[in-house]
Write a structure and sequence with these properties.
- With about 325 residues, this protein is an alpha/beta fold.
- It has one domain (about 1-20, about 30-310): Glycosidases (TIM Barrel, Alpha-Beta Barrel), CATH 3.20.20.80.
- Helices cover about 35% and strands about 15% of the residues.
- It has eleven helices and eleven strands.
- The chain has helices spanning about 1-5, 10-20, 45-50, 70-85, 105-120, 140-155, 170-180, 195-200, 205-215, 250-260, 300-310, and strands at about 30-35, 55-60, 85-95, 125, 160, 165, 190-195, 220-225, 230, 270-275, 285.
- The chain is globular, with a radius of gyration of 19 Å.
Length: about 325
């Protein structure tokens, strides 16, 4: 029905009809659905703003505010998501201009403090993006990431701070165990981000189960989705990410699997799908809900339905 609908109605109308034609599963008040996307214009797309999506995620270089062009990008992203009525979660990560290395804690603190002063309405942060996939051990140092976590907690005691955003690759269990060992048991983070692309795009549940077993407290899927195409990981080390199955034909089933995995535990309370619209042919990654031309893919239908159910909108009887 949805494919025939798109040929007859505008994008805004299509999204609104989607909201009014939900049937089946009962709404989940616990789970919230968001979008992870680096592009500001994604959050101004009428297809998205017509949906009840109120959470947005941005990954920011730890030294981003040192560069005018990065400040402008972040300013525009913030303006657009605010206009769309969305709450931002910010994940800090590697520099876009310097050789990859973890900054000294003092430099990180100064950069994070500057960011918080500039964007005072942001109240949700993560200290570092995907530390468990760093090639060099010094760039995945659990003690340094823990220092960043404590820094954010100290700078903003009333903010929600994730322990880390980790990937469900082969090192997940080992890295998480090492990271948790840095903290006294009573002082461990109680909020976590997981990028479970492997579980979503295979038949495995290992990554999600491992995180539920090791991580205390609440878990958000801060980046996940159906992978259409990607540049495969290089190197000879074992890496579960090499198991990911790609392709447009799998997009709807993989997106449904995101939410099936989220139902594994009530501790999983948010899902951020990455990302909105596909890039060009030379893009190294594509998990877009829309094609490069802006046409909704089958995964968009699943996203729209789940966002509506999560918002508690009443399901309508099928036609």
């Amino acid at each position: 029905m949805l494919s025939r609908m798109r040929s007859r109605v505008t994008p805004i109308a299509a999204a609104l009809v989607l909201l009014g034609s939900l049937a089946g599963a009962a709404p989940s008040q616990a789970l919230r659905v968001g979008l992870a996307d680096q592009r500001a214009d994604s959050f101004a797309d009428p297809l998205l703003t017509a949906l009840p999506v109120r959470h947005a995620r941005l990954t920011v270089a730890w030294d981003a505010l040192e560069y005018r062009w990065q400040r402008q990008e972040i300013d525009e992203w913030m303006r657009t998501t605010r206009a769309a009525g969305m709450r931002a979660v910010i994940t800090f990560g590697r520099s876009r201009t310097r050789k990859y290395s973890l900054p000294a804690t003092g430099r990180y603190r100064n950069a994070a403090h500057r960011f918080m002063r500039r964007y005072r309405d942001v109240r949700e942060y993560s200290p570092w993006n995907e530390p468990n996939i760093a090639v060099r051990p010094e760039n995945s140092n659990p003690r340094r990431i823990a220092a960043y976590y404590r820094t954010l907690r100290g700078l903003c005691p009333n903010c929600r701070v994730l322990g880390a955003d980790v990937v469900d690759n082969s090192s997940l269990g080992t890295w998480m165990s090492s990271y948790l060992a840095v903290f006294p048991r009573a002082g461990r983070p109680r909020l976590w981000g997981l990028h479970n692309y492997v579980d979503v795009n295979t038949t495995s549940r290992w990554g999600t189960r491992t995180m539920l077993r090791l991580a205390p407290g609440e878990i958000w899927f801060t980046e996940t989705g159906a992978v259409i195409s990607r540049q495969k990981p290089s190197g000879g080390r074992p890496d579960r990410r090499k198991l990911i199955r790609t392709g447009a034909a799998r997009a709807a089933a993989s997106t449904k699997r995101v939410f099936a995995l989220a139902r594994m535990s009530p501790r999983i309370t948010r899902v951020y799908i990455y990302h909105w619209r596909a890039g060009g042919r030379k893009a190294s990654w594509d998990s877009g809900l829309l094609s490069e031309a802006g046409t909704p893919r089958a995964s968009f239908d699943v996203f729209a339905r789940q966002a509506s159910l999560a918002a508690g909108l009443p399901a309508q009887p099928p036609e």
